[in-house]
């Protein structure tokens, strides 16, 4: 799949230019929410292009970049107690803007936290969810791990290159 296979755009929601890419024409819309600093193409490459790609005749895949990250910035992401509430509101409004009253969600890591909030606030709209890697409490081990991934100079070349693309 390349750029010609996706419809993309930005929608202004709550002061953020929310970037999205839409793949396929299937009758089942699925919102793909990446982890922190991720994009649909970096975090969902396998589902979009890899050996395990989802059937875009069956599903319409909407890959979003979260408020304040990537092409959904500026403004920069605000880290505060309402961060995931803002994320959920942006995801919901994006899907409404695109004409999807009901949809499913695949999310991981930081995106999974916003997805959980989305499902709580808008349970009538979320059909199903698949979440992975959602840490919901801070332990010393979690903080130590987060500190290692923040320093991109310690990433391997393949991982860094995928984000730089």
SSE map:
Layout: E1 6-13, E2 16-23, E3 28-33, H1 40-43, H2 45-48, E4 59-64, H3 83-97, E5 103-108, H4 110-121, E6 126-132, H5 140-150, H6 157-164
Key terms:
alpha/beta; serine hydrolase activity; 2 domains; 33% helix; Rossmann fold; AB_hydrolase_1; AB_hydrolase_fold; AB hydrolase-1 domain-containing protein; 165 residues; 6 strands
What do you see in this structure?
The chain is of the alpha/beta class. It folds into two domains: 127 residues, 3-Layer(aba) Sandwich (Rossmann fold); 27 residues, no CATH class. Helices cover 33% and strands 25% of the residues. Helix 4 links the parallel strand 5 and strand 6. Helix 3 packs across helix 4. The chain is globular, with a radius of gyration of 15 Å. This is AB hydrolase-1 domain-containing protein. It comes from Oppiella nova. One of its GO terms (molecular function) is serine hydrolase activity.
